[in-house]
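P.,

For your records, the input lines for the assembly:
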Amino acid sequence: MKFTVPIGPQHPALKEPISLRMTLEGEVIRDADIRLGYNHRGLEKLAEEKTYLQNIYLTERICGICSHSHTSCFVQAAEKLLEVEPPKRGVYLRYLVAELERVHSHLLWLGVAGHEAGFDTFFMYTWRDREVVMDILETISGNRVHYSINTLGGVRRDIDEAQRQHILGSLDILRRRTEYYLHIGANEPTFVGRLAGVGYLSKEQAVALCAVGPTARASDVARDVRKDDPYGMYAEVPFEVSTAQSCDVLGRTVVRVKELMQSYNIIEFLLKNLPDGPVAVRSPRRAKPGEAIGRYEAPRGENIHYLKSNGTDKPERLKVRAPTLGNYAATIEMLKSGFVADIPLIFAAIDPCICCAERTVTLVNGRTGEENIVTMSQLRAQAQERFKSAPMKKDAVWPF
Amino acid sequence: MNDAQIIERVAALLGEKVTDITNPSVRRIYTKAEPQNVSSVLAVLKDSLGFTYLATITGVDLGENFEVIYHLANEYTNLNVRTQIPKADPHLGSVCGVIPGAILYERELQDMFGIVVDNIPDPRRLVLPDDWPEGQYPLRKDWKFQRPEEKIPGGKTS
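Structure tokens returned:
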């Protein structure tokens, strides 16, 4: 007997209220369906009525966690159309903020993963450490969420020597803390057991469904725009693409922890090799007719902006593809043949800009057809209950 | 492989199926194909050159025609295949058979431009609300947003 269970639209992903419909057989998910549009803001239409400069601040508001990703991606495309080349120091500062944003986003995600797995201490640790990055971002840009640091032809603020030393000092703290997380799996086998084997996405499926970011990399697809299509100064920065072979939520955790370490190295490299000079150049307001594509590796995966100009100071067309949309098709595949209790974990694992709103789920009892509304916290409690009695996955290993 | 080698391979493999191969900046290649050939072009690019990854599909309203751009990427470069379909009869073949990950982008295209994607595995609405009126396609250039007049039930009529 199969039942269809609606989850959402008021639900787990904070910024994107989304409706998931699960077809269940007992506790096993047989099919999943996704419905978007509850938070569609008509942004692509709006962008056609705003100037290039105004659009930077518009695209910044697409997302509240990776706000810098969207502006950087837009600015990359717009600078190509306006034929303006940002000075080297400006480029370094732009991607310094980008890497700091990746650190804060990944720390946030690790906390959410710990929380969904029932490991709340981990959540509190990572979110405390995240404050260190947030403080750095605040000293650089004056803001914690929307940094507004990008402009056409560079960045809006410079950093001084004291700030540079402050960031390098804070980086030491973050490194020490992340090394501790590297060993957490060795000390905490229940955490590893909870994540291993959940939300399986094979390499073939990840390729076929065009998964992006840590989701693809955890399925051993080494897809990283910073390496494949090095924008900015990434061609000169030494770093490695982090991958994992386990194709599950454990792999996605491992990839993000590895990427944190890579990001610290990149930040250190950028600060130690920060060139002198201006941070921005003046940019023209009008662009000649043409088109450009900005590609950017956001914390969640590839972000792509297509920009077409028509000779005025406003774009003819702006197309935005955020990484979460690219991962939805893969999420459906991951949910299939999983358990109801794994929904929060699998869905959180693609990092759909979560800030954990309380959500309600209608659970239908397969035998009696009885419906009951449960909140996210109850569902989480049920999930933890289930895994208390579940056999430990003895073969799951923490790779560090 | 650099851009020039990829362009050479694309031209050799696809011959007359693609035209106007341009390379305006590094790692950005644009090419054009007829709408009925898009699926086969994408299949060749996927199998022979490793363009397995479809980043997204962009629709552009050109007035008389719609331009649809398939943004592909592999580990070396970014390749964009564009095609044009008449606005009066906007039909496009689905590429889900070649790249299953295209489904959400095709559904979005149907919603926002009113392009009919033939043989799409799942033609339901994706982003527009269920009670959205038929025949309203927000990203067409002639579509202007008009806030509907507010009617308060039992309120004053003026």
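Two observations worth noting. The longest strand of chain B covers residues 53-61. The two ends of chain B are 70 Å apart (CA to CA).

Regards
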